Amino acid sequence: MPRERISACLIVQDEESRLPAALASLDFCDELIVVDGGSRDRTRELAREAGARVIENPWPGFAAQRNVAIDAATGDWILEVDADERISPPLRESIETLLTEPPSDGEIAIFALRNRFLGGLLGPSAKYPAYRARLFRRGAYRHDEGRAVHEGVELRERPIVLDGDLEHELAGSLSEAIADLLRYARLESAHIVAPSSPAAYLKAIVLRPAAKLAYRLLIEAGWRDGWRGLLKISLDVGSDVLVWVRVLRGRGSAEGAMTASVEGEHFGHRRVGPVKVLALASGERGAQSAARRLTELHQRGADVALVAPRAPAGYELPFQPVRRAGPLSVIRALELEMHVRPIDAVIATDARARLLLRLVPGSLRPQSYDLEGTGELRWS
Questions:
Q1: Beta 160-171 vs 319-321: how paired, if at all?
Q2: What pLDDT score was predicted for residue 150?
């Protein structure tokens, strides 16, 4: 069937062992763009043998290199994949369906990332499904070249959610995992402004990592992934500690492209696109009240979604179901919505929902603006 064209864009360097499998999973794409940052192995040769257009560009950083690939593409859609990632057959089917029946009002799609770590698949310990925005219309999005890490595009709209996984070979050995940890910590610490308070360092190096370890193991059920899950979470926590140790030793940013947050994640999301409001309801009456409120906010330009056990009749806006209105299920539903697009405010529409919301981490229930205002929603 006729369909729109798609360009796969990869940025690589010394990836001869992993690149062929990535390119093989992209054989449905109309164009392969490989931007090489200066490989000393057979990476470029293997890419050309697979039919890719190879561009040699000295390494300028992740975001800038991704933009080089985007600028070289000619397809209607851009699909960004790394050398250690594979498009699964179900995800390929979803992408081809989108190309055959392109949305009239959507310019970006997300799909789940499934990590393989030391030979086994990870679930809750790697926040699966951790959605990634890797497919978008050419010309609609670019990467922020001011970021050394977290250079992914920031959504200005609610994305299309595709079925299927992007399979990621996270690390095949412990030495590779530790090397990734050290490299990430070095890049992230370069963006952090050193706090002036000793208490801030205590919180960042001791208290917050301990809380994160417990939260991800127990609340997010990372323990279900066995020893691999425990090791993965421990490495993530260790990376956080190392970032702040580097800052303490004076290796942070003098000015910083983004300011660190000791309270939550190292980087907050940037406010782009419409504000996003979630309504939490525990029962039928609360869900009906939430639906009315969300419809009103949607008409005023907000990106909205309902979190409840069931959606009320006639509700056609985004809906995130919870099996039962309990703390863990609500936390998981809010985390999924945060992956889809960052949340700016959460409304609780009944007494039980208000109680549940008090049990949710602050990062999942922000209040960024006045919901009672009139007219077009604006940032406060």
A1: unpaired
A2: 64
